[in-house]
TrEMBL record:
Mg(2+) 2 binds at E68. This is Crossover junction endodeoxyribonuclease RuvC. It catalyses: Endonucleolytic cleavage at a junction such as a reciprocal single-stranded crossover between two homologous DNA duplexes (Holliday junction). Its EC number is 3.1.21.10. Belongs to the RuvC family. Mg(2+) 1 binds at D7, D141. It comes from Streptomyces camelliae. The active site is at D7, E68, D141.
């Protein structure tokens, strides 16, 4: 499974591609940050994020895109920019028919470190260890994008089984009502 992880942001949008399957060693195929100038018009910043993500999709051809689910923050301007960048990433994937998964920050931290309250340094250290890298990816947005991809690879099989079970249950319940 090849996953593009996206840590959305307007100034720095972390991107990272990981390949592998749950239970086996994972491989980092690329990591980086799509940057936009703080003083640029919002529409141009969103366009720059879109162009950057499109380049990553073209180059790495992921099967899935994992995006950090936007959560409430104290600074409304920050959460708005994060939400807008997140929407751009989802749009780019949807345009190509690539499934998108949203993961909460605590879900990603728990998957990668074992604790949903891990700090950025712990996430970076575990990403470095799991992907057998020489040093933690910088900035933290890049490491977070890789953590999102790892989280999705590890959690997707269980999530798929759960969704299939719910679908079977729903189909069985519906069939019982029509009989």
């Amino acid at each position: 499974m090849r996953v593009l992880g996206v840590d959305p942001g307007l100034t720095r949008c972390g991107v990272g591609v990981v390949e592998g399957v749950a239970g086996r060693p994972l491989t980092m195929l690329g990591v980086g940050v799509v940057r936009t100038p703080v003083d640029a018009d919002l529409s141009h910043r969103l366009l720059a994020v879109e162009q950057g993500i499109e380049q990553w999709l073209d180059e790495h051809r992921p099967e899935f895109v994992a995006v950090e689910r936007v959560f409430s923050q104290h600074n409304v301007r920050t959460v708005m920019g994060t939400a807008q960048a997140s929407a751009v990433a989802m749009l780019c994937a949807a345009r190509r028919g690539i499934p998108v998964a949203l993961h909460t920050p605590s879900e990603v931290k728990a998957a990668v470190t074992g604790s949903g309250r891990a700090d950025k340094a712990q996430v970076g250290a575990m990403v470095t260890r799991l992907l057998r890298l020489a040093a933690p990816p910088k900035p933290a947005d890049a490491a977070d994008a890789l953590a999102l991809a790892i989280c999705h690879i590890w959690r997707a099989p269980a999530q798929n089984r759960l969704q299939q079970a719910v679908a079977r249950h729903t189909a069985h319940a519906t069939k019982g009502r029509t009989a």
